[in-house]
Amino acid sequence: MQAKDFGDSFHWGVSSAAYQTEGAHNLDGKGLSIWDDFVRQKGKVYQNQHANVSCDFYHRYPEDIAILKTLGIKHFRFSISWSRIFPAGIGKVNQKGLDFYKKVIETCLAHDITPWITLYHWDLPLALSKRGGWMNRDIIRWFGEYVDLCSRKLGDRVKYWMVLNEPLVFTGAGYFLGIHAPGKQGLLPFLSTVHHAAMCQAEGGRILKSNCPDAEIGTTFSCTLVEPHQAVQRDIEASKRTDALLNRLFIEPSLGLGYPVDYFHALRRIEKYMRADDEVALKFDFDFIGLQNYTREIIRHSCFTPYIHARPVGAEQRNVPTNLMKWEVYPESIYQTLKLFYQRYSLDKIIITENGAAFDDAWHNGKIDDSQRQLYLKQYIAQCLRAKQEGVPLAGYFVWTLTDNFEWAEGYKPPFGLVHVDLTTQKRTIKESGQWYGRFIRKVQ
Ligand code: FCB
């Protein structure tokens, strides 16, 4: 396999996110986000770690962008921290925050690197969370103000935009399970946030399109290959419900198909949050769909799991290869997921906006030999090629992630980076996987 097999115009990149990398959590006028607050609560994050400094991308972005240049990585996906721009979520703009993103964008462009911006990667301004956050329908207006400002101020330099990052994860982990910020639990908080996030997904797309008519506008979805544990009716039904939740919930309303209530009846209660014209307002014709795949889930029926009556059979229990997240390493999952989304929805353009792996890194003679990560990337990329050669309109692939960073509730334990960061000295060391990815893609560019 060679990168040129994907074609000359294929976008090879890396992805990152503001809260996970920037640090500078309270500098230069930035307001706090729900993650700044969540990490202060004891027991929420592995060893009570936080990203107040993290890999200090806020100060070290020139160095990190220079690494991209060295490796020949020409596409860089990062997110904007909403509370860096609007410290209180709405109202007064923090010019220094805006200037920071302008500098990041200009540095990318000066190095011939294309910036891809995600507007929301989970760090809601704390001030808005205190007013109900995603559970409050006013978020459609608040988010609109934020998207409008970012696209007016940065739109002349940025072509590729993504409205949300993995809405299922921030609603599910943050408002149903309570394991991510803001730590809410329950079906009703979850369903209200799902609906408001799906409304913002479409509204954000419309605002971007009207302010930047030439931009390419996408949004990203977490997606997982879901398979039944056994070929019995109960497991098959359980896996269909899980698939509705994991793979259909946010894309279908944007395509005008409504929520997948027929597959997952508990979702019907979402209607409580819907108003007369919402079904139409949920639609937006995205220029591309970002899919993020890491693994697959094997699902069995379970009477004990409320609402969904399904539970995953863990990878460890199945005795299959895993990474440090305990996620099964199953390269074919990315192929199957690409085929599924293409066949189900006839999408015109798909980008893999995240894929990557957390493995322990071993130092040998001053180098980081992370052969497992390298093998993972090679195998998953090969499965992407297989899907592309079978007609899936795959136009790009982004590795999660450039530098080791703060992995949400897991803290710094699982490193995903192509580049190691010593959190005490902030020294960057390119891992063997990073060198490999650079050599691999340089052959086309
Ligand atoms: C995705 C997130 C990203 C990172 C990777 C490992 O779900 O979008 O921020 O945490 O997983």
Describe this protein's structure.
- This protein has about 450 residues and is of the alpha/beta class.
- It has one domain (about 5-440): TIM Barrel, CATH 3.20.20.80.
- Helices cover about 40% and strands about 15% of the residues.
- The protein contains 16 helices and 15 strands.
- The protein has an 8-stranded parallel barrel, surrounded by 4 helices.
- Helix 8 (about 165-175) runs antiparallel to helix 9.
- The longest helix has 25 residues, at about 185-210.
- Beta-D-fucopyranose binds near residues 165, 292, 354, 408 and 416.
- Beta-D-fucopyranose (FCB) binds near residues 17, 222, 292 and 407.
Strand count, sense and closure of the main sheet?
8 strands, parallel, barrel
Percent range of helical residues: 25-40%
Task: From the 3D structure, determine the CATH topology.
Answer: TIM Barrel
Number of helices: 16
Sequence of strands across the biggest β-sheet: 1-2-3-4-5-7-10-13
CATH class: Alpha Beta
- Parts with pLDDT < 50 across at least 5 consecutive residues: none
Q: Do you know the CATH architecture?
A: Alpha-Beta Barrel
Instruction: State the end-to-end CA separation.
Output: 16 Å
**CA-atom Rg in angstroms:** 21 Å
Counting helices, strands and paired strands, the structural category is alpha/beta
Shape: globular
Fraction in beta strands:
15-25%
Name a few traits of the molecule:
single chain; 445 residues; alpha/beta; TIM Barrel; three-stranded mixed sheet; binds beta-D-fucopyranose
